[in-house]
Specification:
Blueprint lengths: L5 E13 L3 E3 L2 E3 L3 E3 L7 H14 L4 H4 L12 H14 L2 E11 L9 H11 L7 E6 L5 H4 L3 E12 L1
Parallel strand pairs: 5-6
Antiparallel strand pairs: 1-4, 1-7, 2-3, 5-7
This protein binds magnesium ion (MG).
């Protein structure tokens, strides 16, 4: 039954460390800390891929791209999005909408919000007005509130291509 809409959820956490490039939703932010990771650590793109893969009933990102594979070391997460979309198209599906929440103390997302929406729209082949991204602080609570980590949560809706 490929004609019914499918929903998927992706969640990803990365620790923050000084001197790492700060990649969020495919946009590089000017910040003193950035996400630690085997790849570029882009939590929003990782969560978005997992949401889309989940909705399509496909293997998750960690299965497709192992963090033990040297080929994925410092790899741009945009590559993972392209591979995800290849698989989605092969199943006769497309992404209808993405809704993203990033919980973090740094960076402040607001100045780049539109740029992130447009980048996500380009990577997942949908109009920018069907992509949303919201920033939340951790309210000084837990590892996110202390600025030690960021967490992205993404819901994706897919439908027939
Ligand atoms: Mg990740």
């Amino acid at each position: 039954m490929n004609d019914l809409p499918r929903i998927g959820l992706g969640i990803d956490v990365h620790r923050l460390a000084p001197g790492r490039p700060c990649m969020v939703a495919g946009i590089r932010f000017d910040a003193e800390v950035g996400p630690l990771g085997h790849s570029d650590g882009d939590a929003v793109l990782h969560a978005a891929c997992d949401a889309v893969l989940g909705a399509a009933g496909l293997d998750d990102l960690g299965t497709l791209f192992s963090d033990r594979d040297p080929a994925n070391h410092d790899r741009p997460s945009a590559d993972f999005c392209r591979a995800t979309m290849d698989q989605v198209r092969q199943k006769g599906l497309r992404v209808l909408s993405l809704d993203c929440v990033l919980e973090t103390e740094v960076p402040k997302l607001k100045p780049q919000r539109q740029a992130m929406r447009e980048r996500l729209a380009a990577l997942f082949a949908l109009p920018a007005d069907r992509v949303n991204i919201k920033g939340k602080t951790g309210e000084k609570v837990d590892a996110i509130g202390r600025g030690e980590a960021m967490r992205a949560t993404v819901v994706a809706l897919l439908g027939p291509a």
